[in-house]
């Protein structure tokens, strides 16, 4: 038995995860812009870039579960 509401709940969770990734990217960037230690800034930049990869992965999952949104991405060349 598969819950009919499961895809909607999955999408909601994935979109909330995307919000978290975007907030993390912004926070890391803010820290990079203010930290004076070059080595620390480089490590934070690496972590920020990993968060960007997570955002792409989440976007792919959302496209898989939401055909309408997938079509909108495709229409915009994304």
From TrEMBL:
The keyword Iron applies. GO terms for biological process: intracellular iron ion homeostasis. InterPro entries: EncFtn-like, Ferritin-like_SF. Pfam families: EncFtn-like. Keywords: Iron, Iron storage, Metal-binding. The keyword Ribonucleoprotein does not apply. Gene3D superfamilies: 6.10.140.1960. This is Rubrerythrin diiron-binding domain-containing protein. GO terms for molecular function: metal ion binding.
């Amino acid at each position: 038995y598969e819950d009919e509401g499961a895809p909607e709940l999955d999408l909601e969770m994935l979109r909330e995860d995307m919000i978290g990734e975007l907030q993390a990217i912004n926070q890391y960037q803010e820290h990079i812009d203010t930290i004076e230690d070059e080595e620390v800034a480089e490590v934070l930049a690496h972590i920020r870039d990993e968060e960007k990869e997570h955002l792409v992965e989440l976007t792919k999952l959302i496209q898989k579960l939401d055909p309408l949104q997938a079509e909108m991405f495709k229409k915009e060349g994304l």
